[in-house]
Amino acid sequence: MDATLTEIKAAARKAAFAARKAAFAAGQGQAAELLADVLAAHRGRALSGYMPMRTEIDPLPAMAAHDGTVGVPVIMGAAQPLRFREWSPGCAMMAGEFGALIPAEGAWIEPQVVIVPLLAFDARGYRLGYGGGFYDRTLEGLRARHDIVAIGFAFASQEVEAVPIDTTDQRLDLIVTETGVRQFR
Known about the structure:
This protein has helices at about 5-25, 30-40, 60-65, 135-145; strands spanning about 45-50, 70-75, 85, 95, 100-105, 110, 115, 120, 125-130, 150-155, 175, 180-185. It is of the alpha/beta class and about 180 residues long. The chain has one domain (about 5-185): 3-Layer(aba) Sandwich (Rossmann fold). It has an eight-stranded mixed β-sheet, with helices on both faces.
């Protein structure tokens, strides 16, 4: 990635963090219910969610309601794809990389549906992440092996005119916010 795109993404992340913080303070509305409705169409499919940190919108109620195996991402190391460890409400958790909680033990799963956290998204279905490339690398690998559904989960106010992208950025299949669901496939 060239220096200019790196700088553009850094500025976009700063603005996106501020927008998400304001949205988080305003409340999550019906977001988890809408996400659960979307996931109902994927009953029985392995799902990966995430453990919300700071001002991320909370997918835990929808994850807990999912009819199928649920996992959460585990960072294995820099520049490596994520792996997913099985999770259930109340399971023993421990701090992983960057402070994200991960199950202390459990089976590794390969998700067919992935709930993706983000800082910003646009009408094309692209997302702005935290800059490590973990989800882009992971989605690319999963898509090479089988059909998956990548669901962005965010506040509606996290939408921007255009997310700065490069050739490694992976597009979402849909986005769920507290105001509705948008498909990009």
